[in-house]
Amino acid sequence: MGNISNNDSYSAAHSRIKDMEQLRKNEDSIVFALYCSGVAVECMLKAFSSEPFDGRHDLLKIFNQSDIGSKLSERKKEELSLHVKKISKFWRNDFRYYSEIRMKRLIANEMVHSKGKNINKYLNKYKNFIFQSSIIIVQIGDIAWKQSKK
């Protein structure tokens, strides 16, 4: 595989958000929609990194290696950091291998640890949280991208 430029990563982030938006409309595609949302975040963060990719898909590590924060106001940098930390707790690169049943088991297990009672309510909250955070991260990345081009 050839080198992936920062421009490629930036464009891929937008492509994965579009994929996620289409996939999330169909309940049968939710697992892959969740996967695409995390990949969008990963791509946006890589757009601001000069570090070689180590193949680990660790969103916090990629965030810390990137210089995305240097292009943002303190408020936006804090907002970005918060969303990256939160999504990194929930998103897993191996989602692409999960069946709907396995995903529900994973989420149900997390729900039990959080003392939740209603699996469907928790599942919707989980999905919406990941979807919203990924969109916000890409939007903040857009701000940083425009700042870096000035």
Textual characterization of the structure:
By secondary structure, the protein is mainly α. The protein has one domain (6-148). Helix content is 69%, strand content 0%. It contains six helices and no strands. The protein has helices at residues 6-23, 30-46, 59-65, 74-90, 100-113, 119-148.
Q: What is the element layout, followed by pairings?
A:
Blueprint: H1 6-23, H2 30-46, H3 59-65, H4 74-90, H5 100-113, H6 119-148
Strand count, sense and barrel status of the largest sheet are:
none
Sequence stretches where pLDDT stays below 50 over 5 or more residues:
none
Strand proportion: under 5%
Helix content: 55-70%
Number of strands: 0
The rounded distance between the terminal residues' Cα atoms is 31 Å
Counting structural domains, the number is: 1
Number of helical stretches of at least 4 residues: 6
Mean pLDDT, as a whole number? 86
> What shape does the CA trace take?
globular
* Rounded Rg: 16 Å
Structural class: mainly alpha
Reading the helices and strands in chain order gives HHHHHH
